[in-house]
Amino acid sequence: MSINFRFIGFVALISISFSACAQKSGNNNQTKTTSTAMDTFEIKKTDDEWRKQLSPVQFGILREKGTERPYTGEFDKFYEEGTYYCAACGAELFTSKTKYNSGCGWPAFYEPSVNKNIVEKRDVSHGMVRIEVMCAKCGGHLGHVFEDGPKPTGLRYCINSGALKFEAGKKK
Fold this sequence. Notes:
Blueprint: H1 5-20, H2 47-53, H3 56-62, E1 82-86, E2 92-95, E3 99-100, E4 108-109, E5 118-123, E6 130-135, E7 141-146, E8 156-159, E9 164-168
Antiparallel strand pairs: 1-2, 1-9, 3-4, 4-8, 5-6, 6-7, 7-8
């Protein structure tokens, strides 16, 4: 019997990737969960329209609820002062003031800059129970939020770099 160590290593890496962004605490009453239907978003486009506008990586994340590999995103270890926007529609989402190094491999924020621009929805995909974070304007998948973040909120918005655009400078 031949053991394929490359395959075993690949499976282990995938398992670690999913679990790195899947931590949650037992206190479930801190996270507000809002469920919404895709037809309630202000911006409605077909997949073909989104494909023309977004890069393949952005489309995979924002429209197909994909994720980038941990520690590979442009904004994981990025700490310039500025504002983060939805890469699909430009809605303001986070600022550098709430960004921190969580060590999970994705950009992490402890709160959105504009609460109404974020929608949270229960996600039971991949055998886990998580809270998905989406752009309230276009419905784009951004990442997930967990209850293991720092004060003052105790939240960790674990967001894909591919879902974000950054503008340097202070928020006006």
